[in-house]
Amino acid sequence: MSHVEVVTFKLAAGKSAQQLLNTEAAMQAFLTEQPGFLYRSLSCHEQGTDSEQWFDIIYWEDAQQAQAGGETLMASALGAELMSAIDPATCVVRHMPTLCEHMSCELAEQA
Questions:
Q1: Nearest to 63 by CA among 2, 12, 11
Q2: Considering the chain, what percentage of its residues have pLDDT values greater than 70?
Q3: What contacts 81, CB < 8 A, 6 or more positions away?
Q4: How far apart are CA 65 and CA 6, in angstroms?
């Protein structure tokens, strides 16, 4: 089974969703170079409201690769850029093994 990293956060004061989304191409390039990276999604609940909360969900092959990927990101310029957009008081990182996985037939054929 894979390992999932779930990061929840709110944007830092004065930062916009577009500023965060502008880092997506660099984040995708970074992740695809990391051993064990499988899949990532970034979503936002109640975007544009005071209750806005972001969910960054990354699937890895195992916990060690997830930990290594996170440490590499935090030591990089991209990590610093991302963290400048996030309110650190709201940032929570959770790591957990997946207990079951399901995907569409199209994705399963590609895997």
A1: 2
A2: 97
A3: 23, 26
A4: 14
